[in-house]
Amino acid sequence: MSVRPATATTSAAAAPASDAPWVVCLCAEWCGTCRDYRPLLEQVARAHPQFRFAWVDIEDHSEIADVFDVETFPTLLVAGADGTRFLGPLLPHAETLSRMLDALQSPKPSSADVEQLLAALDRKPSAFTV
């Protein structure tokens, strides 16, 4: 199972619903911790097909990521059409992320910045594939 958008290597049946919440890793290519986190995020994505996962390099996608003023890497955002469930730094441990996703709180209204980021992800999810 993959939570990535359907591609040549994933089937449409394995893809999450188009309205599924996003789990977004706000990262930077120069950050060694972020690079180490990517395969763990892929592992968690396979185990949580109810979410869509995205990798947003804050320098490559500064037009949508600068507003978050990320100071600690990696920073995770879990949000969808129903609101924001989590935004903050999270240690790069697959088990920690999995437990957090399993125990998410009710969503709170998203800020305009979060809504802008989610709209960009929805427009071109392949640009942010985990």
**Strand order of the biggest β-sheet:** 2-1-3-4
Structure annotation, total helices = 4
Q: What is the CA-CA span between the terminal residues?
A: 14 Å
Which bin fits the share of residues in helices? 25-40%
Tally of domains: 1
Rg value? 13 Å
Low-confidence stretches are: 1-13
| Overall pLDDT level | 85
| Shape, principal axes of CA atoms | globular
Specify the structural class: alpha+beta
Beta-strand portion reads 15-25%
Element-by-element helix/strand order = EHEHEEHH
- How many β-strand stretches? 4
| Biggest sheet descriptor | 4 strands, mixed
List the helices and strands and how they pair.
Blueprint: E1 22-27, H1 32-47, E2 52-57, H2 62-65, E3 75-80, E4 83-89, H3 94-102, H4 112-123
Parallel strand pairs: 1-2
Antiparallel strand pairs: 1-3, 3-4
Helix pairs in contact: 1-3
What can you tell me about this protein's structure?
This protein has 130 residues and is of the alpha+beta class. It has one domain (1-10, 37-123). Helix content is 32%, strand content 19%. The chain contains 4 helices and 4 strands. The chain has a 4-stranded mixed sheet with strand order 2-1-3-4, with helices on both faces. Strand 3 (75-80) and strand 4 form a beta hairpin. Helix 1 crosses helix 3 (94-102). The longest helix has 16 residues, at 32-47. It is globular and about 30 Å long.
